[in-house]
Amino acid sequence: MSASGSPATSGPSGIPHLDVDPFAMNFFADPYPTHELLREAGPVVYLDKWNVYGVARYAEVHAVLNDPATFCSSRGVGLSDFKKETPWRPPSLILEADPPAHTRTRAVLSKVLSPTVMKQVRDRFTAAADERVDMLLEQRSFDAISDLAEAYPLSIFPDALGLKPEGREHLIPYASVVFNAFGPPNQLRQDAIERSAPHQAYVTEQCQRENLAPGGFGACIHARVDEGEITAAEAPLLVRSLLSAGLDTTVNGIGAAVYCLARFPDQWQRLRGDLTLARNAFEEAVRFESPVQTFFRTTTREVELSGATIGEGEKVLMFLAAANRDPRRWDKPDSYDITRRTSGHVGFGSGIHMCVGQLVARLEGEVMLTALARRVARIEITGEPNRRFNNTLRGLDSLPVTITPA
C-alpha cells in the first residue's frame, strides 16, 4: 500500500514499493499509522522516495542488527553511502565501523562505561537528581524538557566526562546535528550541517587530552593510548562518540518517560507504590517512544531476508520504533506498561552496535524517576507539548507541566 492507501506496486522479486517519506514533517508529527502500513505491507519493503529498502517488523530489524557482516555500518548508518560520497565529518570509530576495527575501539568504551564504573558514579548521579527535584518542587510549574530532561543530564554528564564548564551549551545542538545528518539531504539535514561549525569546533577542541579533567571518562579514554590499546589520533574521536552517545539518548529518554508518566497517571501511581519499577518505567518509555527512530545499514553482498532478495551495496532502513511496537513481538504494543517485560526492545539497538551509552542513560533515567516518584504526587501537562523535529530522533522541544508535592 502507498501512503495514500492505494495498492503498492511490486518491485524487485515481489517486494512491495511504498510511496512513503519517513523523513517528512507530517511523518514525524505522527509516525504510527505509517509504521503500521510499513509492517503490514511485508517483511521487506522498498521506499521509492529515497531508493532504499526498509524493514519495520521486529524479526527483520533484529536480524539486520545482529548480522553486521552482511549489513555493515562502515558505509554509514545514515542514507549517505561513505563508499560513494565523503562523510560530513570524520566517521565515528564506533557507530560507523565494522569488526575487527570496531571490536577494539568498542572494548575501550565498554571499559570506561562499565557496570563497575556506573556503581562508582551512582551516588553522585542520585544526589544530582534529588537536587534537581528540589528545585522543581520550588517552581511547581516548569518545562519538563529544558528544566528536567535536558538540565539534569547536562548538570552531571559533562562533569563525569571531565569537560570544562565553558561552552557546554554546544552539546545538545551538536548531538542534534549528528542525528539530523543521518537523514537524507532534506531541509533539516542541510540546516543542521550549515549551522554545525561552532558546535563541531567546540566538540573537537574539548575532546583533546589537555582539555579533559583528570579522573573523568574522557581522561580514562586517553589513558588507553598509554596502554597501547588505541592510538593518540583515535582517542579524541572516541571521546566525541561519548559526547553524542551519552547525552541525546538520555535527554530524549528522560523526556519520553516523564511524558508517558504524565499521560498515564495509573502508571505513575504504580511507580509511586513501588520505586523498584523506576528502571523498567524508563526502559518501557524507550520502547514505547523510541527516542532513536531509525538507522541504516548497507549490504556487503547479495542477501535473502525473509524471502526478499537484496543486492550488494543497498541501503536498508531499519524502523526501530516500528519494531518496538510490532504486535508480532509485543502484547498490547501501543500501551505504556511499566511492569512489561521490556527485554529485547531495540530502542538502544541490538548486537555489537548496541548503544554504548546505554548504561549511563539507564542509570540517569532510573535515579531521576526514583527521585520524582518519591517526592511528587502528581504530574499534570499544563500546555501544548511541542515536538522537536529531527531526521533520526523523536523527542519533545517543550512539555509544560505542573507537579504536586507528595
From TrEMBL:
Taxonomy, superkingdom: Bacteria
Cofactor: heme
Pfam families assigned to the protein according to its UniProt record, in alphabetical order: p450
PROSITE patterns, A to Z: CYTOCHROME_P450 (PS00086)
Record key words, sorted: Heme, Iron, Metal-binding, Monooxygenase, Oxidoreductase
Keyword Iron: yes
Molecular-function annotations in GO: heme binding; iron ion binding; monooxygenase activity; oxidoreductase activity, acting on paired donors, with incorporation or reduction of molecular oxygen
SUPFAM superfamilies recorded: Cytochrome P450
Family the entry assigns: Belongs to the cytochrome P450 family.
Name of protein: Cytochrome P450
Lineage of the organism: Bacteria, Pseudomonadati, Pseudomonadota, Alphaproteobacteria, Hyphomicrobiales
